[in-house]
Amino acid sequence: MRKADLRLDLAEWAMRKRPHHPDAIVPGHPEKSALIKRIESTDSHFLMPQTVRGEAKPMSAAEIATLKEWVREGAVYRPHWAFEVPVRPAVPAPSALGGWARTPIDNFIFARMETVGLRPSPEADKAALIRRVTLDLTGLLPTPEEVAAFLKDTSPDAYERLVDGLLARPTFGEQRARYWLDYARYADTYGLHFDNSRDIWPYRDYVIRSFNNNKPFDQFAMEQIAGDMLPMKNLDPLIGSGYVRLGLSSNEGGTIPEELRVNIARERAEAFGATFMGLTVGCAVCHDHKFDPTTQRDFYSLSAFFNNLDEKPFNDDRPVWTPVVRVPSPHNEEAYNRVLEQRSDLETKINDMRCNSRTLVAQWLASGVNPPRPVPASGLVLRLRLDEGSGEELRNSAPNANPAGFRTSTMKGEWGETTWLWPDFRMQSSTRVLLGQTGDYEAKQAFSAGGWFMVRAAPSHPGSFGTLLSKMDSTQHDRGWELGTDDGFVSVALVNQMPKGSSSTEKAKTQHKNGQKDKEPEFKEPFNYPTPQDLTKKDLAPNKPPAQKKAEEDAANKEKAKAKAEAKAKKPSAAEPSKDTTPAVAIRVVSLTPLPIDNAWKHIFFTYDGSGQASGIKIFVNGAAVPTRVVTDNLGGATIRNDAPMQLGWRNPEEHPAKDARYQDIRLYARSLSLDEVERLPFEDYAAEIASHPASQWTTDQWHVLSEFYLNHVDPAYQAVQREIIPLDKQLDLLSEGGALTQVSWEKPSLAYAHVLTRGVYTARTDRVEANTPHFLPPLPPGEPRNRLALAKWTVSPANPLTARVTVNRMWYELFGTGIVETTEDFGIMGQRPTHPELLDWLAVEFRESGWNVKHMYKLMVMSAVYRQSAKSNPQQLAKDPRNLFLSHGPRFRMDAEMLRDIALQAGGLLVERIGGPSVKPYQPPNIWEEVSYPTSDTVHYVQEHGDSLYRRSMYSYVKRMAPLPDMDTFDEPMRDVVCTRRQRTDTPLQALVTMNDVQWVEAARALAQRVIREEGSDPKHRINRISEIMLSHGVPPSMATALEASLRKMQKHYSADPKAARSLLEVGEKKRDPSIPEPELAAWTMIATEMLNLDETLNK
Amino acid sequence: MKQHPLCTDCESPVTPLDLPVPAAVKQEWAAIETRRRFLGRSGKVLGWAALAGLLGEAGLRSVAAGADLTAHPQDHKIDLGLPHFAPRAKRAIYLFMSGGPSQVDLFDYKPNLASQFNKDMPDSVRGNQQLTGMTAGQAHFPVAPSHWPFRQHGQSGTWVSELLPYTGRMVDDLTIIKTINTDAINHEPAIMLMNTGNMNAGKPCLGAWLAYGLGSMNDNLPAFVVLQTKTNPKENNQPVSSRLWGSGFLSSEYAGVGLRSGADPVLYLADPAGVDREVRREMLDTVERINRKTLDEVGDPETNARIAQYEMAFRMQSSVPELIDLSKEPQSTWDLYGPDARQPGTFAYNCLLARRMAERGVRFTQIYKRGWDVHNDAVGMLPILCGETDRAAYALVTDLKRRGLLDDTLVIWAGEFGRTVYSQGGLSPDNYGRDHHPRCFTTWMAGGGTRQGVTHGETDDFSYNIVKDPVHVRDFNATILHCLGIDHNRFTFKFQGLDQKLTSPVEASVVQDLLA
Questions:
Q1: Which residues neighbour A330 within 8 Å (Cβ) at sequence distance 6 or greater?
Q2: Do you find a cis peptide bond into A459, omega within 30 degrees of 0?
Q3: Which domain covers residue B58, as residue numbers?
Q4: Which residue has the higher pLDDT, A594 or B58?
Q5: B151 and B251 inside one domain
Q6: Do B116 and B32 lie in a common domain?
Q7: Chain centroid, CA A418 distance in Å
Q8: Across all residues in chain A, what is the average pLDDT?
Q9: CA separation for the pair A461, A442 (Å, rounded)
Q10: Does B257 contact A990 at a Cβ distance shorter than 8 Å?
Q11: Count H helices, E strands: chain A?
Q12: Of the ranges A401-415, A512-526, A703-717, A890-904, which one carries the lowest mean pLDDT score?
């Protein structure tokens, strides 16, 4: 907490009256302002500021004078520059500019340069220019032929035509995508624990395609944030929405579901903040941001947008986990897109109705047609709404309830983690809800029971459900009754006696009375579109770990088997169940198909007519009767009464738990409800209750319940559209058969909300907050649903001060090496100030007003005079501006990891220039993955590929988060755990080891040597010149030629004397060498090529 | 306050590049500077020392006197002012027992538990502890007393399990902490918290902080080295990941360098087949010749860095093989470490390498040993795990002590959390499993200014809650930094607008009781 309730960074705080404290700032009156008195004080106890340890840390006289002057002038707080909408500033016209400027950018740059006494450098020579611009726009070198053609072209627009040509190349999209994948945290594994593979490479293709098609950036941004909610003519928006799901995920055995859910939403909010807002919102996870105005409330409101996906909470160690979409193959694409567009139109109708639902509900209730009807309360003996929200008392809200309530025992339940009808109730592992002798019936008594349940799966218990509600005594051969589930099969049992352990271990599906086995029930992913409905278990099965070398694997397996046998021998004997021969006297009825194990709320209910027959039991899910089969039916008239208390979630005393299940509105009726009544139980009964109160009193949650009920059960138009969609989804499934799967986003119909968490601890929930944008930025338009679509529109709205600035700044960073705001990731108070604030704003407005035209912006920048300057620097420039922040010479810096490897491959003609597709596994030293991975991870063994896969561009190399490719890692490729908008650029000896010794570089050197030997005849001078042209885009200067020729003679001598060494060197790498070249000759030239590949000039752009 | 320009922690850093000195001197300085950046050598001690060497003391003074001493605002590193105070430890070796060793079976002696066998642990003890998904559904939490007897050892009479006979021999050298506690209950977040002070990815680890702050004491070896122990397929090998030795927001040159068993002890260290030292030297000479020309023409100081970078790589190619060449180790070494130490990749081998690195000035060595995750068959697994580690850890401490290195080398033994006293799954008279337990676990430290023969903190009768002297992971890390002469509150790096530190923004304190 802030001492004395004061903070000075916000006007409202600094000016507020604080009881018993002097005014901190009195505008216009420094002498009355405690702030000024404090900083001027000579009393070291009184003086401010102080260090954390309370030592005085006086300000300088100049600083004090400035503050005093500011207070005298009225102490005006201006918003932080980055939070004000950029307006296009006037382009400066410095008198000394002369003819230097080629674009308005240059006027800004020149004006700034003048203020620090610097002058621009001359234009780079054409060779340097084409190398620089080709590398920047395509990530590859210009070929010597391209260089020659450019040098020859003396027309005034030669450079512009070159730029246009480069912008039109498909490699432009690759190069831009390479940066964007850092900004989007793209990787091929999910990053934690098993760190298994995850299929989302079609997203990478989408990014490349988007840049190549020059998709307007606002569209590109919106698709990634909420593509699933946009109208679609093709799959791109949906594939783009995979952005949301690129972050880390986990399936660690002990993971606590709430913790993971909170972490995932948090990660997405932080990523969004970094990618699109350039803000470090994550600082507000634990507390209000110390410097930026981001409050904790802002942060969690932002995270709420990403907390409402219709997704599997755990990944089950699968390569895809829903929602996923299947990408049609090219020949079906057109047909697929036609259907998709139809579907999208219908979806738009649905969204419109949802947006309009409050009006529709009001009209419906006012009309008096089909009003919601409650279920008569007769026979209702127990109703636990479980809406208390806190504490240990559970109210029984049945009429004349006796007892009127119950207490949780052992451990309190957990309240309000999620919201269904209202904030919910969950049983902790030791929570017990004992409901006394309510429900102690004879078999001839009709009764009905059930309620809303969320039976949860988790990595450690993926499918084993348990008791939902029971009055059953496991110490008395399970006498009593029980509603439960086994692996998703809903089961109702009325028991006189059963052999011990039978129903809890027996798989409901295993056998019929006649001993026949049921067919394995058809597996369905529980999700709707976009996940194809015909995906089978096989499609979604976890990948198996790839085999290691046979011998090693066998040895390991042997060890494992042995260990297992040993462990088994030691297994506690208590675990062996004793055979119980008690004959079963019971009724047991089980649903024919299992419920999906998807952690979703379901209304599960049964009725029993007191007939003593299995046929008297009906099971309902979400109000509809489900087909059942009879497992046992020999109760006859035997008693089921017992002394055990009725219990939620357990069978008395402590068996067959529904682990950590959630509950809402649990009911027991001492009668058999009619079909019509059961149908109304899940929603209509509560809707009727809400509708009996005036609409002005309804909470947001209640509005939501009424809307859902109205749309799904009353409104014929809505249901008709829903029905129209069904056949389209079938067509889409068919048309995409066999296509690649990729993870995407899909919004749930529920409200997007989150909880503010004290110190970010997932159990320390305080306020529940609806999705919203940070309070210090423009608000969302009123009346629209607060969901990702709203966030997406807001992100690219003209009122948003950040998105355009942040994006053009990153473009600048890519080309010039340093952003105009150096901290590309932080535009907040603590970020760097822009070196050229007006230029940044000019570019931001230009970007927006150009229709978010990405290629236009890159072209503008590379056409500028400042970009075209020579990179040479002189001591004066170095002294005045050692980091070239004012750009008095052209950019020169070490290329990124991927570019270095790519140009090495390109130089030797090894590079395979194919765009897109799944990731590849090029060379990697042994034991990188094995050393860190879990033994059953599907990324435990790196299985290197062969042929073309070794020579693809580096952006296609497989990214395993827990063990990055070491050559890329050495050159600062980020780990993709979190968003990286600014790479480090280190120089370490480990890098020299890579470019000298890595098989890829040695092979590339050999290929380069072979190429020039073949292309250039026998004169070493020509060959050396050619290498220089290939790598450096210019012929070899004399001094370099001398050095290389001398080196060549030594190498030739060496390898002629040691042909064995020559052969060994040439055997590095899988590409076959040209056998027509004598080995010592090729080896010597390989070393010359290595020298060239390792030059400072080669490694720099 | 301006300080003398030769003072190593002066507020306004000045480099030889600011001074009117000959170009050759600047060049040399740039080369040294590059080395410093690689090795994370902090301060400009090295730079100034080298400069003084070139010019002589008097020359340097005259140069400094005439220099413009305006600061280079971008160079924060020079201003770290480390160490903050005289360090007790110059280097540290961290034996990381990944998976969560069972304090109940190794160190936290609870004689009264025998009578509680198979009885439910009282709910009052468990309190509101969130359980992992693996035992959250258990109806019962039956107490599993340790299968192994404990014995008292040494002058201090410290109780240690029979599983650790060698550790027993050295208890008088150890500070045993029974009351470490953490916020995380699952491996991923817990191992991150332990190593980086934060449960989420993106923060630098302890070793990276040390490499950044203190650098190496050997210009030819990295400051921070990570060793992986070969996995034993019998064990439950929880994964580790390179983010545990990553540099987070610090420059990536401070990340741990993996020293591997096998042909390439450092990745890409070996020259390719057919390239011998002579060829390599010739190649490097040619490259340097051309690079110097480039430097003259383009004037980019980074070119200097590149020249130095290649020279260092060349030297590393000899210094690392020398480091791992154990052929000159005397017989006494093998007697001490045992036969495992001859097998590359074993924990014993890694401990021996750690000692050799300590001798050669590597600042921080971290050895990962996986497999401590005994959810079941604790009785089968723990003897194997202890057999692999007990003797080697003892040998390392003893070896350092014999060589006089223990006084200024801090040795740390720790995992990411402890294990539950109650059994996970079935309990029998002969076996049990244990789930993760964050509320208390045991670690030890030796040397480097820590106290000897003491045990810190007490847990309750169930080794479940702390009753006296808790030590949070943050406090533990603050204490480690303290031993190395670093005030954890002052050792910060500005990132995302915050003065980031290893101990996180949350309050942490040095545990004075652990220090001699």
A1: none
A2: no
A3: 16-65
A4: A594
A5: yes
A6: no
A7: 21
A8: 91
A9: 35
A10: yes
A11: 35, 21
A12: A512-526
969-988 of A, contacting B, C-beta below 8 A:
969-970, 972, 975, 977-978, 984, 986-988
Q: Round to whole Å and give the CA distance between B82 and A128.
A: 44
Q: Specify whether the CB–CB gap between A343 and A729 falls below 8 A.
A: yes
Buried/exposed code over A183-212 (b: 16+ C-beta within 10 A; e: otherwise) = bbbbbbbbbbbbbbbbbbbbbbbbbbbbbb
Question: Same domain for B189 and B147?
Answer: yes
Write the CB contacts of A783 (distance below 8 Å, at least 6 apart in sequence): none
Is residue B435 domain-shared with residue B471, that is, in the same domain? yes
Share of chain A above pLDDT 90, in %: 73
How much is the mean pLDDT over chain B? Answer: 85
The residue among B473, B416, B392 whose CA lies nearest residue B102 is: B416
pTM above the 0.95 mark?
Answer: no
The confidence band for A465, taking pLDDT boundaries of 50, 70 and 90, is: confident
Q: How many domains does chain B have?
A: 2
The answer to whether residue B282 sits within a structural domain is no
**CB < 8 Å from A in window 125-184 of B:** 126, 128, 130-140, 183
Q: Give the number of C-alpha atoms closer than 13 A to the C-alpha of residue A683, restricted to the C-beta side.
A: 23
Nearest-angstrom CA–CA distance, A638 and A813: 81
Q: Which residues, in sequence order, are CB contacts of B13 under 8 Å at separation 6+?
A: B44, B71, B72, B75, B78, B79
CA distance linking residue A522 with residue A223, whole number of Å? 34
Same domain, residue pair B33 and B120: no
Residue A56 distance to chain B (closest CA, Å)? 14
CB nearest A660 (choices: B136, B238, B376): B136
CA distance A513 to B118: 40
CATH number at residue B137: 3.40.720
Q: Which residue has the tokens 């950040």?
A: A802
Among residues of chain B, what percentage have pLDDT more than 70? 84
From chain B residues 263-282, the ones with a CB under 8 A of any chain A CB are 264, 266-276, 278-280, 282
Between A427 and A1047, name the one with better pLDDT: A1047
B362 and B408 inside one domain: yes
| Cβ distance of B185 and A254 shorter than 8 Å | yes
- What does the pLDDT read at residue B66? 33
Percent of chain A with pLDDT over 70: 93
Tell if the CB–CB gap between B312 and A989 is shorter than 8 Å: yes
* pLDDT digit string, tens, across residues A340-399: 999 999 999 999 999 999 999 999 999 999 999 999 999 999 999 999 999 999 999 999
Model confidence pLDDT, tens digit, residues A905-919: 999 999 999 999 999
A280/A843: higher pLDDT: A843
For residue B408, being part of any structural domain is answered with yes
Q: How many residues does chain B have?
A: 516
Q: Would you call A318 helix, strand, or coil by DSSP? A: coil
Q: pLDDT per residue over A787-822, tens digit each?
A: 999 999 999 999 999 999 999 999 999 999 999 999
